[in-house]
Amino acid sequence: MSKIVITGATSGIGEGLAKHYANSGDEVIACGRNQEILSDLQRNFAMTPKAFDLTDPEAIKSNFADVDELDLVILNAGGCEYIDNANEFDGKLFERIMRINLISVGHCLEVLLPKIKPHGQLCIVSSSSSYLPLPRAEAYGASKAALSYLARTLSVTLKNIDVTVVHPGFVETPLTDKNDFPMPCKVSVDEAVERIVDGVAKRDKEVHFPKRFTWILKLFRLLPFALWSPIAKRIARG
What we know:
The protein is an alpha/beta fold. The chain is globular and about 50 Å long. The protein contains eight helices and seven strands; from the N terminus they run E-H-E-H-E-H-E-H-E-H-E-H-E-H-H. The protein is 45% helix and 18% strand.
C-alpha cells in the first residue's frame, strides 16, 4: 500500500486518479477547494480529504503539518484561461494563471518534498501545450512550459526521488468543456488515468498522450520557429 497526495482531486484527471488509487487499496490524501465534492469522495472511497486553496502557502503548510512518509505526490491542480486579444494584454489574468499553475506548485514542493520517502516519486501534470507557442495561450501555455522545465530540472537535481512529468493532450474534463475550439484526439478521463498510472508505475520520465496527437506536436516542435510561426498564425485566424 502506498501513501499518495493528489492535488486537484475534485474534478477531471485528479478526481479520476484519486478514485483509482483508493480502489487499489492505497492511502490517498485528496486535496482541492470544493469541500462538498471531497466529502462525497470520502463517503464513497477510502481517502482523506483536505480542502484548502493551493495559492495560500500557509494553508499548504498547515494542512500537511501532520503528513509524512509519502510514497507519491501528484501535483495536478491547475486552471485554464485564455488571452483573447494579445494587443490588450490582461496582466491580472496572466498573474492569476501563473499563480495557480506554477507558483502554487513551488509552495507545494517546499512543503511536500521533504515528506517524500527515499526512492519515492513526484509526478507533475503539465500539458502538451508546453511543446509549442499556441494562439491565446500566452498565460496558460507559458505556465505549463515553465512547469515542464521545472519538472525536468527536478528530475536531474533531486536525490532519491524519481520525477515524472505528464503532458496530456485534450482530456474530456470540466476544464476543457469550456473550450470554444476544436479539440482533436480528445480522450476520456479514464484513458488519461490509465496512461498516467502506467507511466508512474514504470517511473517514466515523461508520460504523453494520446500519442497520435502528441507526436505530431513533438514533430512540429522540431521546425525552426520561422516555419512554425505562420502555421500558428493561420490557426489563430481559424
